[in-house]
Design goal:
By secondary structure, this protein is α+β, with helices and mostly antiparallel strands. The chain has one domain: Ribosomal protein L30/S12 (60s Ribosomal Protein L30, Chain: A), CATH 3.30.1330. It contains five helices and four strands; from the N terminus they run H-E-H-E-H-E-H-E-H. It has a four-stranded mixed sheet, with helices on both faces. Helix 3 links the parallel strand 2 and strand 3. The chain is globular. The protein starts with a helix and ends with a helix.
Length: about 110
């Protein structure tokens, strides 16, 4: 399941629907272009709070998934603590896959 999430992120990057890095992600959120924001699980508390507050204020879905290295690798770049998906269809598909992977992880732990 994890590979499908990263594959979808790579597909979104190829489609030109990914914005990454703190400044670019913040700009996409504030301009209303971001449909989904993904934060790395190892992002700093300050970064988490900053993006969490921004997304909550603008009613943008935020997911915490993977780590900085995995997010960067998925989109063919260096380490990334955050990224935004700007295409609604791709964002919904990625969010759905992330939720499915979290559900399957919780089921495996029981």
């Amino acid at each position: 399941m994890i590979n499908k999430v990263y594959s979808m992120m790579g597909l979104a990057e190829k489609a030109g629907s990914v914005v990454s890095g703190e400044f670019s992600t913040e700009k996409a959120i504030k301009s209303g272009k971001a449909c989904l924001v993904i934060l790395a699980s190892d992002a700093s508390e300050n970064t988490r709070k900053h993006f969490s507050d921004m997304c909550a204020y603008r009613n943008i879905k935020l997911c915490i998934y993977g780590n900085k290295e995995e997010l960067g690798h998925a989109i063919g770049k260096g380490m990334r603590a955050n990224l935004a998906i700007t295409d609604r269809g791709l964002a919904d598909s990625i969010r759905k896959r992330i939720e499915e992977s979290e559900t399957s992880e919780n089921t495996e732990r029981k």
